[in-house]
Amino acid sequence: MKKTLLSISILVALVLWVGGSFGSHAQAQQPSDKITVLIFDRASFDGAQADSDLINSFLGLIFKLKEGQPFAFVALDDPFATLGPIETDSVEFPAVRRELDVMLSGTSGAARDLSGALAEIYNFLGSERAGAQTAIYFITGSTDEMTTPVLQNGLVQMVHLLGEKGWPLHSVTLPGASEELAAVLSAISKDTGGESYPLSIPDGMEHFADRILRLEAKGSLTELGSIELTANSSLEMTLHIAPGTEAANMIFFREDRVTAFRIKNPDGFEASAGDRTSSSLTELPNLVIWQILDPAPGKWQIDARGVEGVISGWHYSTNKYSLMLQSFGAQPLGQPATLAAYVFEHGLPVVLEDEVTLTARITSPDGTTVTYSLNDRGKLGDAVAGDAYFAATIPPQTAEGDYSVELELSWPKLEHTITARDSFEIRSFPSLAVTPVKVDDLRSGERTKIATVFANINGTPFAVFGERISVDMATVVEEPGEIELVPQRIISEGKASNFDVFYTPAKETLSTVIVRLNMEYAGRMHSYSTDSMVVSTLRTLVATPQPPPPPVVAPTPVPPQLPALEPVKSAPVPIALVIVLAAVSLSILGLAAYWLTRPTPFGYLYGDRGQLVIDFSTLQRRPVMNLAFRNVVNGSELGISGLEGAKFTFMSSQQVVMSSGQSSHATVRVNNQPLIGQMSIHDNSWIGAAGRLYSFSTTPPAGSTKGAVAPATAD
Fold first, then answer.
1. Whole-angstrom Cα distance, residue 214 to residue 228?
2. Distance set, CA 407 to CA 47, 326, 363, 394, 507 (Å)
3. Considering the domain boundaries, does residue 117 fall inside one?
4. What's the longest Cα–Cα distance across the chain?
5. pLDDT band at 27 (very low <50, low <70, confident <90, very high)
6. Same-domain check for residues 235 and 299
C-alpha cells in the first residue's frame, strides 16, 4: 500500500510537470556532459503522505532549477538498472518519468550497498564522458529502526575516486532520518566536495533551492515574506521588478497544499496563471513556482491565503542587462585615469532610458576603498552624453598593483540593483627625462648637441626604438633647420635608452622643442610628452664701453643785445602736431590691415579613438563673435567638457596658442603639462581635459575631400 501511495503521488507531480510551462518555454538543447544523478534509497521510503509530498516537491524543484539539463536515476538496491541520462526538455522525458514512477514503487530485495552503487555510477558516468560539473544526490529516509545501508565496503576508495573526478556526492535526508546515518553521509559529502540537505518546509527546501541557484550561477533567493497562516489570515508581499528582467520566478514553500495565490502587476491587473504567453504556474504539494516572462518593471503585489500552516515566499530573476568595465589595459602610475563601464544586452552596449545611477567602489592594493559616481551625461570625465558608456575621472594613484572594482547599477525609483566585479592594474609606464646641454647662442648652419634624452621607468633605464621618440620643434620661420635624435649606445635589436639631440639651425630665431614618446606598453598605446624647451639662435649683443665725455668748457659771456623789431607774421603749423597726426593715421591703417588679415581658425580636434570631435574651419559661431574675434575661439564655443575656460588663438597660418582663463576651474593639460597661462600647440599636440584625451591636428579626417590645412589669412 505504501508503495502504491508513493507511486500515485510522484505520478501526480510528473503530470503537473508536463502540464506546466517549464517544458513549453524550454528550447531544444544538445546533450550535455553536466549530468545530475539521483540515487533513491527506495526501501527507506515508508509511504507516509508527508514524505511522499516532500519527495514529490523535491523532484519538481530540482527539475526546475536544472531545467534543460540531463538527469539519470538509480535505485540503491538495483544500481545496474539506470534510467537516463535524459534532458528535462526532451520529448522523451515524460516516458522516462513514468519509468521512474515504476522504479520508485517497488524494491528488488537486494542489499542496499552505497559503495557498490557508487562504483556502478562511477563506471556509468565514465562511459558517458561526464564533465566536472556532474553531481550525485543520494536521497534516503532511513530511520534508526531500519537497517542501515551498507557504507563500509570500499567506500573510502570510492570517495577518493569521486573527488579526483570532481563529482560531488550530496546527501538528501527526509525528516526523521537517523542522525547517525546523516552524520556519516555528511562526512562523505564533505570529502567529495558535496553538501548535506535535510529536507523540511520551509527551511530545508529554501536552503536547497538557494544553493542550487548559486552553484548554477543563476543568482540567489531573495525573501518576499513568511507567515504561519490561519483561516482568517493572509500573506501580502511586494516584488520590485527592474527594467530588463527576462523572467521573474516566485517560489512559495508551504506546509498545506490548500493555498491560493493572487498576483497583480504594477497597473493593478491580476496576472493569470492560465495565460501561458506571459506567466506559468507549477503547483506541487509543498511547492508553488510562478514564473512571469518579460514582466513589466515596477511594483508587483502578491497575496497568499490558506487554511493553516507555514508559508514562505522567495524570488529570483534573470536580467538581460549586464555590467562590464571597459578595459583600457594597465593605467599609468601617477596620472589621472578614466574609469568607464557600460551596460550591455546580449553582448551589445545599450542606452538606458530610465533614471539610473552607476557607482564604482575601487579598492586599492593596501585595502583603501573609495566610491566614485559614473555618469553618461557628458560631464566629469564622460566624453559623450547618451552613448551607453558611463565614465568618471579618478585622481592619480600612488600605489602599483591590482585595483578591484565593484560596479553597482541601480534604479532608485524601483529599488533594484545589478552588480558586477572587475579589476584594473596601475603600474609605472615609460617616461623621458630631457637634460638641456646648449640651447642659447646657436650658430646658423652649425650642428650642436642641444640636449640628452633618457628613456626610463621610475629611473630605471628602458630601451626603446628610436623611431618611437619624436622631437617636435615649433618656430615662426618656415625652415627652422634640421633636428636629429641619435642613440648614444645600441643595447639590443636597435634599441637604446640614452639619446643625443642635435640641432642645425637655418636661421636666427627662437624655437620651442618638445620630445614625445609614443609606443605600445602593457597592452595599450602609451604617449608621454616632456616639458617644452626653448632653443635660441639669436646672437647675444655684448655692450661696448663708451668713451668718457669731453671736459665741459665754460662759454665766453656775450653782452645782451636788444631784439630787433620785426614785422608780425602768421604762426606756422607745429611740427609735433604733424607727427602725432601721422602716427595716428599709421596706427589706424595698421589696425585696419590686421583686422582684414587676421587668420581664420583651422585644424581639427580628434578623440582618443581617432574620431573627429571639432573641425575649427567649419565651427558654427555667433556672427558678433566671428566678426570681433575671428582668430580667437573660446572653449565654451566647442561644447567639450573641461575646455570651457580655455581659449584657442590662431596667431598665423602655422601657429596656434592655447591659453587658460582665470575663471577656469578645470585642469587642462597640453602635452602632459598643466596649461598655465598660454602654450603653443602644433600638429599632433595632445590636449587632456575632464579625463578625456584629444589631439590637435592639421590633417583632415579620412575620406574628407579637404587637403592638409593651410588656411588663408585674408578675407
1. 28
2. 51, 12, 12, 15, 58
3. yes
4. 162
5. very low
6. yes
Q: What is the C-alpha separation between 150 and 167, in angstroms, rounded? A: 21
Identity of the amino acid at 615? D
Asked if 349 and 226 sit in the same domain, the reply is no
Lowest mean pLDDT among 139-148, 454-463, 662-671, 695-704: 662-671
**pLDDT for 2:** 39
**Which residue from 232, 281, 228 is spatially nearest to 256, judged by alpha carbons?**
228
CA distance 618 to 704: 13
pLDDT for 73: 92
Examine the fold and report which residue of 319, 354, 369 is the final residue of a domain before the chain moves on: 319
For the beta carbon of residue 116, count every other beta carbon within 10 angstroms: 20
> CATH number, domain at 499?
2.60.40.1930
User: pLDDT tens digits, residue range 516-541?
Assistant: 999 888 877 888 888 888 888 876 54
Give the pTM.
Answer: 0.54
Same domain, 377 and 305: no
Please report the pLDDT score of residue 559 as a whole number. 58
Distance CA 504, CA 443 (A): 8
Binning pLDDT at 50, 70 and 90, where does residue 503 land? very high
Look at residue 385 and tell me if it is in a domain: yes
- Write the single-letter amino acid at 491: I
Q: Is the pLDDT of residue 672 over 60?
A: yes
Helix, strand, coil in percent for the chain, rounding step 5: 20, 40, 40
User: Quick check: 31 pLDDT over 70?
Assistant: no
**In b/e form, how buried is each residue of 660-670, taking b as 16+ CB within 10 angstroms?**
beeebebebbb
The answer, yes or no, to whether residue 428 has pLDDT greater than 60, is yes
Q: What is the pLDDT of residues 245-294, one digit of tens each?
A: 888 888 888 887 767 778 888 888 877 644 434 777 888 888 888 888 88
Number of H helices and number of E strands within the chain? Answer: 10, 44
Classify strands 279-284 and 646-650 as parallel, antiparallel or unpaired. unpaired
Alpha helix ranges (H) inside 82-193:
93-104, 114-127, 155-165, 179-191
Q: Do 132 and 261 reside in the same domain of the chain?
A: no
Tell me the average pLDDT of the chain: 79
User: Nearest CA to 711 among 635, 639, 630, 643?
Assistant: 630
Q: Which domain holds residue 448?
A: 431-536
Q: What is the DSSP letter of 437?
A: S
Looking at residue 261, which CATH number applies to its domain? 2.60.120.380
158 in the same domain as 53 = yes
Q: What is the CATH number of the domain that holds 181?
A: 3.40.50.410
CA–CA distance, 202 with 444 (Å, rounded to integer)? 93
Q: What is d(CA 370, CA 55) in angstroms, rounded to the nearest whole number? A: 49
pLDDT digits (tens, 9 = 90+) for 308-318: 778 888 888 88
Could you tell me the three cell numbers for 331? 593605467
Torsion-angle region of 318 (φ positive above 0: left; ψ -120 to 50: alpha; else: beta):
beta
CATH number at residue 385: 2.60.40.10
